[in-house]
Amino acid sequence: MIIKSYNEPHSHILIEDFLPKFAMEYIYNTIIMNEKDLVKGQMMKDNGQKYDDDKKENRTLDIGNDMMSILQRYLFSDQMRTYVYEHRNVLFRTLLDTNAGTGIVSIYNDGDYYKWHIDFNRYLTCSLQLCHEPRTFTGGDFMLKYKDEIKTIPFKNNLLIIFPSSAEHSVSVVHTKTKKLEDARMSVQYWCYRQ
After folding, report:
1. DSSP string spanning 141-174?
2. DSSP character for 96?
3. Residue 116 host element (H or E)
4. What average pLDDT does the structure give for the chain?
5. Interaxial angle between packed helices 21-33 and 65-75, expressed in degrees from 0 to 180 and rounded to the nearest 10
6. In this structure, is residue 38 part of a structural domain?
7. Cys-Cys with 13: which of 91, 131, 138, 162 at CB 3.0–4.6 Å?
Protein backbone atom coordinates (compact mmCIF):
# COMPACT_ATOMS: atom_id res chain seq x y z
CA MET A 1 0.00 0.00 0.00
CA ILE A 2 1.17 3.48 -0.89
CA ILE A 3 -0.83 6.01 1.15
CA LYS A 4 -0.90 9.74 0.37
CA SER A 5 -3.12 12.44 1.83
CA TYR A 6 -4.22 15.74 0.33
CA ASN A 7 -6.08 18.80 1.59
CA GLU A 8 -7.33 20.35 -1.67
CA PRO A 9 -10.05 20.78 -2.79
CA HIS A 10 -11.33 18.59 0.08
CA SER A 11 -9.29 16.45 2.41
CA HIS A 12 -8.86 13.04 0.83
CA ILE A 13 -6.59 10.01 0.93
CA LEU A 14 -5.37 8.03 -2.07
CA ILE A 15 -4.12 4.49 -1.50
CA GLU A 16 -2.39 2.82 -4.43
CA ASP A 17 -2.21 -0.97 -4.52
CA PHE A 18 -4.83 -1.11 -1.78
CA LEU A 19 -5.62 -4.80 -2.08
CA PRO A 20 -3.28 -7.70 -2.75
CA LYS A 21 -3.65 -9.28 -6.17
CA PHE A 22 -5.62 -12.33 -4.95
CA ALA A 23 -8.22 -10.09 -3.26
CA MET A 24 -8.59 -7.88 -6.36
CA GLU A 25 -9.04 -10.97 -8.53
CA TYR A 26 -11.63 -12.38 -6.14
CA ILE A 27 -13.68 -9.17 -6.18
CA TYR A 28 -13.39 -8.83 -9.97
CA ASN A 29 -14.39 -12.48 -10.57
CA THR A 30 -17.30 -12.18 -8.11
CA ILE A 31 -18.63 -9.19 -10.07
CA ILE A 32 -18.29 -11.06 -13.38
CA MET A 33 -20.08 -14.13 -11.95
CA ASN A 34 -22.98 -11.95 -10.76
CA GLU A 35 -23.51 -10.04 -14.02
CA LYS A 36 -27.14 -11.24 -14.20
CA ASP A 37 -27.86 -9.32 -10.96
CA LEU A 38 -26.75 -5.91 -12.29
CA VAL A 39 -29.47 -3.25 -12.31
CA LYS A 40 -29.68 0.28 -13.70
CA GLY A 41 -28.01 2.63 -11.24
CA GLN A 42 -30.34 4.95 -9.36
CA MET A 43 -29.69 7.77 -6.95
CA MET A 44 -31.46 7.12 -3.68
CA LYS A 45 -31.89 9.11 -0.51
CA ASP A 46 -31.50 7.27 2.80
CA ASN A 47 -35.27 6.98 3.07
CA GLY A 48 -35.28 4.92 -0.15
CA GLN A 49 -36.70 7.71 -2.30
CA LYS A 50 -35.33 7.83 -5.84
CA TYR A 51 -34.29 11.17 -7.33
CA ASP A 52 -32.32 12.84 -10.16
CA ASP A 53 -32.46 10.15 -12.86
CA ASP A 54 -30.28 12.21 -15.23
CA LYS A 55 -27.31 12.48 -12.84
CA LYS A 56 -26.19 8.92 -13.35
CA GLU A 57 -25.89 6.38 -16.13
CA ASN A 58 -24.37 3.10 -15.00
CA ARG A 59 -25.30 -0.28 -13.54
CA THR A 60 -24.97 -1.40 -9.94
CA LEU A 61 -24.73 -4.56 -7.89
CA ASP A 62 -25.27 -4.97 -4.17
CA ILE A 63 -22.00 -5.61 -2.41
CA GLY A 64 -21.96 -9.11 -0.99
CA ASN A 65 -20.76 -10.18 2.45
CA ASP A 66 -17.53 -11.61 0.99
CA MET A 67 -16.59 -8.37 -0.76
CA MET A 68 -17.60 -6.39 2.33
CA SER A 69 -15.36 -8.55 4.53
CA ILE A 70 -12.38 -8.16 2.20
CA LEU A 71 -12.74 -4.37 2.11
CA GLN A 72 -13.15 -4.14 5.87
CA ARG A 73 -10.16 -6.41 6.51
CA TYR A 74 -7.81 -4.06 4.64
CA LEU A 75 -9.57 -0.78 5.43
CA PHE A 76 -9.29 -1.47 9.16
CA SER A 77 -5.85 -3.11 9.01
CA ASP A 78 -3.15 -2.11 11.48
CA GLN A 79 -1.35 -0.16 8.74
CA MET A 80 -4.48 1.85 7.94
CA ARG A 81 -5.36 2.39 11.60
CA THR A 82 -1.85 3.71 12.31
CA TYR A 83 -1.91 6.03 9.30
CA VAL A 84 -5.38 7.38 10.09
CA TYR A 85 -4.54 7.84 13.76
CA GLU A 86 -1.37 9.79 12.93
CA HIS A 87 -3.07 11.85 10.23
CA ARG A 88 -3.72 15.40 11.39
CA ASN A 89 -7.16 15.70 9.83
CA VAL A 90 -9.79 14.85 12.43
CA LEU A 91 -12.23 13.78 9.72
CA PHE A 92 -10.16 10.72 8.84
CA ARG A 93 -9.78 9.82 12.49
CA THR A 94 -13.54 9.29 12.43
CA LEU A 95 -12.77 6.17 10.39
CA LEU A 96 -11.57 4.66 13.64
CA ASP A 97 -14.92 5.49 15.25
CA THR A 98 -17.18 4.03 12.59
CA ASN A 99 -18.95 0.81 13.46
CA ALA A 100 -21.11 0.25 10.40
CA GLY A 101 -20.84 0.30 6.66
CA THR A 102 -22.69 -0.43 3.48
CA GLY A 103 -21.69 -0.56 -0.14
CA ILE A 104 -22.39 -1.20 -3.79
CA VAL A 105 -20.51 -2.04 -6.96
CA SER A 106 -20.83 0.44 -9.85
CA ILE A 107 -20.22 -0.60 -13.46
CA TYR A 108 -19.50 1.96 -16.18
CA ASN A 109 -19.60 0.93 -19.86
CA ASP A 110 -19.44 3.08 -22.99
CA GLY A 111 -21.14 6.44 -22.42
CA ASP A 112 -21.74 5.87 -18.69
CA TYR A 113 -21.01 8.59 -16.12
CA TYR A 114 -21.97 9.99 -12.73
CA LYS A 115 -22.55 13.75 -12.50
CA TRP A 116 -21.74 15.91 -9.46
CA HIS A 117 -23.41 14.65 -6.29
CA ILE A 118 -22.86 14.01 -2.59
CA ASP A 119 -23.42 10.84 -0.58
CA PHE A 120 -26.18 11.42 1.96
CA ASN A 121 -25.85 10.85 5.73
CA ARG A 122 -22.47 9.15 5.79
CA TYR A 123 -19.13 10.09 7.37
CA LEU A 124 -16.68 8.85 4.79
CA THR A 125 -16.89 7.36 1.32
CA CYS A 126 -14.28 4.80 0.25
CA SER A 127 -14.22 4.19 -3.49
CA LEU A 128 -12.07 1.32 -4.82
CA GLN A 129 -11.36 1.64 -8.55
CA LEU A 130 -10.94 -1.59 -10.52
CA CYS A 131 -10.89 -3.02 -14.02
CA HIS A 132 -9.61 -5.98 -16.01
CA GLU A 133 -5.97 -5.57 -17.03
CA PRO A 134 -4.94 -4.43 -19.55
CA ARG A 135 -7.46 -1.61 -19.38
CA THR A 136 -9.48 -1.17 -22.57
CA PHE A 137 -11.46 2.00 -21.75
CA THR A 138 -10.69 5.69 -21.53
CA GLY A 139 -12.26 8.27 -19.24
CA GLY A 140 -13.86 7.23 -15.99
CA ASP A 141 -11.73 9.64 -13.99
CA PHE A 142 -12.86 10.52 -10.46
CA MET A 143 -13.31 14.20 -9.60
CA LEU A 144 -13.69 16.11 -6.33
CA LYS A 145 -15.05 19.66 -6.18
CA TYR A 146 -15.13 22.47 -3.65
CA LYS A 147 -16.75 25.70 -4.83
CA ASP A 148 -15.00 26.34 -8.19
CA GLU A 149 -11.95 24.16 -7.55
CA ILE A 150 -11.94 20.72 -9.17
CA LYS A 151 -9.37 17.98 -8.72
CA THR A 152 -9.26 15.18 -11.27
CA ILE A 153 -7.92 11.85 -10.06
CA PRO A 154 -7.13 9.75 -13.12
CA PHE A 155 -8.53 6.22 -13.04
CA LYS A 156 -6.02 3.71 -11.72
CA ASN A 157 -6.72 0.06 -11.04
CA ASN A 158 -6.64 -0.88 -7.33
CA LEU A 159 -6.70 2.75 -6.16
CA LEU A 160 -8.77 3.48 -3.04
CA ILE A 161 -10.05 7.03 -2.65
CA ILE A 162 -11.28 8.05 0.83
CA PHE A 163 -13.08 11.37 1.14
CA PRO A 164 -15.84 13.05 3.17
CA SER A 165 -19.22 11.84 1.96
CA SER A 166 -20.40 15.46 1.94
CA ALA A 167 -17.83 16.40 -0.73
CA GLU A 168 -19.19 16.88 -4.25
CA HIS A 169 -17.75 14.24 -6.56
CA SER A 170 -18.33 12.77 -10.01
CA VAL A 171 -17.07 10.23 -12.56
CA SER A 172 -16.27 11.41 -16.10
CA VAL A 173 -17.79 9.71 -19.15
CA VAL A 174 -16.34 6.28 -19.92
CA HIS A 175 -15.49 5.27 -23.51
CA THR A 176 -15.20 1.59 -24.40
CA LYS A 177 -15.19 -0.31 -27.69
CA THR A 178 -17.62 -2.93 -26.37
CA LYS A 179 -20.39 -3.23 -23.80
CA LYS A 180 -18.80 -6.36 -22.31
CA LEU A 181 -18.58 -6.37 -18.55
CA GLU A 182 -14.93 -7.39 -18.82
CA ASP A 183 -14.16 -4.07 -20.57
CA ALA A 184 -15.97 -1.87 -18.03
CA ARG A 185 -14.72 0.59 -15.44
CA MET A 186 -15.75 -0.72 -12.03
CA SER A 187 -15.73 0.69 -8.55
CA VAL A 188 -16.73 -0.60 -5.16
CA GLN A 189 -18.15 2.07 -2.87
CA TYR A 190 -18.06 1.52 0.86
CA TRP A 191 -19.71 4.11 3.09
CA CYS A 192 -18.57 4.30 6.72
CA TYR A 193 -20.85 5.64 9.42
CA ARG A 194 -21.73 5.23 13.07
CA GLN A 195 -24.97 3.64 14.26
Report:
1. -EEEEETTEEEEE---TTEEEEEETTSEEEEPPE
2. G
3. strand 113-117
4. 82
5. 160
6. no
7. 162
Distance CA 155, CA 117 (A): 18
32, containing H or E segment: helix 21-33
Tell me the per-residue pLDDT of 29-88, one tens digit each, with 9 for 90 and over.
988 888 787 666 554 444 444 555 555 555 666 777 888 888 888 888 888 888 877 776
Out of 25-29, 80-84, 142-146, pick the least confident: 80-84
Q: At 140, which CATH number?
A: 2.60.120.620
Which range marks the domain in which residue 133 is found? Answer: 2-33+56-193
Of the candidates 162, 186, 192, which has an alpha carbon nearest to the alpha carbon of residue 106?
Answer: 186
Phi–psi pair at 15, nearest 5 degrees: -125, 110
45 part of a folded domain: no
What's the total number of domains in the chain?
1
Backbone angles phi, psi at 167, to 5 degrees: -80, 135
